[in-house]
Each structure stands twice: as structure tokens, then as C-alpha cells.
Write a structure and sequence with these properties.
By secondary structure, the chain is of the alpha+beta class. The chain has one domain. Helices cover 16% and strands 38% of the residues. The protein contains 1 helix and 4 strands. A 4-stranded antiparallel beta sheet has the order 2-1-3-4, covered by helices on one side. A hairpin with a 5-residue loop joins β3 and β4. The longest helix is centred in the middle third of the chain and has 11 residues.
């Protein structure tokens, strides 16, 4: 069975949010729907048990819809 992981989001100031998701991409997409920050810091533990950190620019994903 797949394991859900906890992703901790912060902007370095007052924002502290924890999101539980199966993957990094799903966690970031659910976070960016709630908050409109442009740059966030993410901490999580990988599948292999390593502690990972990343500064991420938002929004993440497609800029334009295709096919309509």
C-alpha cells in the first residue's frame, strides 16, 4: 500500500501549514488552491526516509488549458 506523507509549508514569516498527500505534486497543488503566496518553503520526509527541503515558486502547473 502507498504511504501518505506530511508536507510542511511555510513562507518564513507567519504562515505554517501541514498538508497530507501521496506525492509532492499533489500536496503543492492542494496548497496553492488555498493560499496565494508566490514563494514557499517545503519540508517533507521522502519514501526512503531522507528529510527533504525545497524553496518553490508558485503557481506550479500548466499555464494554459489545451484542447478547447
Amino acid at each position: 500500500m502507498a504511504k501518505e506523507r506530511e508536507f510542511k509549508f511555510t513562507d518564513g514569516k507567519e504562515l505554517q501549514e501541514t498538508v497530507t498527500a501521496m506525492s509532492w505534486k499533489k500536496a503543492v497543488k492542494s496548497f496553492q488552491n488555498k493560499f496565494k503566496n508566490k514563494l514557499i518553503y517545503i519540508e517533507w520526509i521522502s519514501k526512503k526516509g531522507q528529510e527533504m527541503t525545497k524553496w518553490q515558486k508558485l503557481p506550479v502547473g500548466r499555464k494554459d488549458k489545451l484542447g478547447r
